[in-house]
Write a structure and sequence with these properties.
Layout (H helix, E strand, L loop, with lengths): L1 H12 L18 H15 L5 E2 L5 E5 L11 E6 L14 E3 L7 E2 L7 E2 L15 E3 L8 H19 L8 E6 L13 H4 L3 E7 L4 E6 L1 E10 L15 H10 L16 E9 L3 E10 L2 H19 L6 E10 L3 H4 L3 H13 L5 E5 L4 H7 L4 E5 L2 E2 L7 E3 H20 L2
Parallel strand pairs: 3-8, 3-9, 9-16, 10-15
Antiparallel strand pairs: 1-2, 2-8, 4-7, 5-6, 7-18, 10-16, 11-13, 11-14, 12-13, 17-18
This protein binds zinc ion.
Length: 411
């Protein structure tokens, strides 16, 4: 099993699958299908006869049920094929540090890139592991190709061990998760699953049943434009108004000043000329009311700033992005409980966590497929310092197998 999951992973990471938020189509980049095609080939090869790539770039396949029980739920196991636009995914050259003995890891392609123990204390738990990194010039893509490799390896293991009884398991590999469109075109009827798990978390042993709730806000400001030579007492410069709004944002409510369960108001874009300006924000909180409070605060700041500019006006638009999946998962507690048990049976101490972000699972949960997030083993996502341990990927494979067993056992 060991060679298999890492070998697969090393094959997948060299295929560039970076998604692109600026592209209007799905998949946002055609190259994501290159990985999709390889995965279909590999899934067919291990015996999943219905494996296929659809027109949106998704890969579907089924591990058929092999139990006589007919009440075992159909589980979907999901991972995403794209990598984050934040850092290059072209020409990934994976490096394998065998039997890691501690200390900082300097990356050979760009020696200024160092994975430091001080910044990544999890390295202390990985002594003796084989650690995969990039060469420092690209991201690695363990997010989420580790998850994909684990799912394919688990499928192969289940097919090779028919004595392990399980229900039908639907495999789903999505595109464009990193740009928030991962599940836009999922065919739920075809998927036909009762609930799911994404393999897209970090540290081995972690199960996440909670994500941020997320909104976007756009403030459009209309100022009063006039020739600067005749502006006295008349000009209301939209650029200045936008600057004043930003300056008044509470400093203790930013991504860089919050952690754990605190949310934030985060300006993500500003464009402007004298007559009009536009500010974009993302608002994050674990609770719906936390979102509403932050949005009310942002609007209050805007209103107060605007009072000094009687000739100007603004619009304030809130767009829902995704919601904390815990609301849905709490209605089906066994989804997380069984995952916790599977992690324990795979030899780890389960840790329940919450994601300061969203996954495909947060949106799937609200689209009718309750979905928790299991660790894939990677660290330092979206950066050239990204790394993953082979042994942790094996533990994830084991976790999937134990999970399949548990749902059959308890049906
Ligand atoms: Zn991911």
């Amino acid at each position: 099993m060991a060679a298999s999951v890492t070998d697969r992973f090393l094959r997948y990471v060299v295929i560039d699958t970076q998604s692109d938020a600026a592209s209007p189509i799905q998949p946002s980049t055609e190259k994501q299908k290159n990985l999709g095609r390889l995965l279909v080939e590999e899934l067919l090869e291990i015996g999943l006869t219905d494996a296929h790539l659809d027109e949106h770039g998704y890969v579907y396949a089924t591990i058929p049920s092999n139990t006589h029980k007919n009440n075992v739920p159909v589980i979907c196991i999901c991972a995403h094929m794209d990598t984050a636009p934040d850092f290059s995914g072209t020409n990934v050259k994976p490096q394998l540090v065998r039997n890691y003995q501690g200390g900082d890891i300097r990356l050979p392609g760009d020696t200024s890139q160092v994975i430091r123990v001080a910044e990544h204390p999890v390295l202390k738990d990985l002594i003796g592991h084989d650690i995969v990194t990039s060469d420092g010039t690209t991201l690695l893509g363990a997010d989420d190709k580790a998850g994909i490799a684990e799912i394919v390896a688990a499928a192969e293991f289940l097919l090779n061990n028919p004595d392990i009884k399980h229900g039908a398991i639907r495999i789903l590999f999505t595109t464009d998760e990193e740009i928030g469109r991962g599940v836009d075109k999922v065919d739920f009827k075809k998927l036909g699953a009762d609930f799911g798990y994404t393999m897209d978390g970090e540290t081995a042993g972690t199960i996440e049943d909670e994500s941020f709730s997320a909104d976007g806000v756009e403030i459009a400001i209309k100022g009063v434009a006039i020739h600067p030579g005749f502006a006295y007492g008349k000009m209301e410069n939209a650029i200045r108004i936008a600057g004043e709004i930003i300056a008044r944002l509470p400093k203790n409510m930013a991504p860089e000043t919050t952690k754990d369960r605190d949310g934030f108001i985060h300006p993500t874009g500003v464009t402007g000329v004298m007559e009009k300006a536009k500010l974009s924000f993302i608002i994050r909180d674990f609770k719906e009311e936390g979102l509403k409070t932050k949005e009310a605060l942002l609007e209050k700041i805007t209103r107060e700033v605007m009072e000094a500019y009687p000739g100007s006006s603004y619009t304030f638009t809130v767009k829902e992005q995704y919601r904390n999946m815990k609301v849905v998962l709490d209605r089906h507690p066994e989804i997380v409980d069984y995952a916790v048990e599977a992690i324990r049976r795979a030899g780890m101490e389960p840790v329940r966590g919450s994601i300061r972000g969203g996954t495909d699972g947060s949106r799937l949960s609200f689209m009718g497929l309750p979905c928790a997030n299991i660790f894939a083993g990677g660290h330092a996502f979206h950066s050239p310092l990204e790394f993953v341990s082979s042994q942790d990927m094996e533990k994830a494979v084991k976790t999937i197998v134990e999970l399949a067993k548990l749902w059959e056992e308890r049906a």
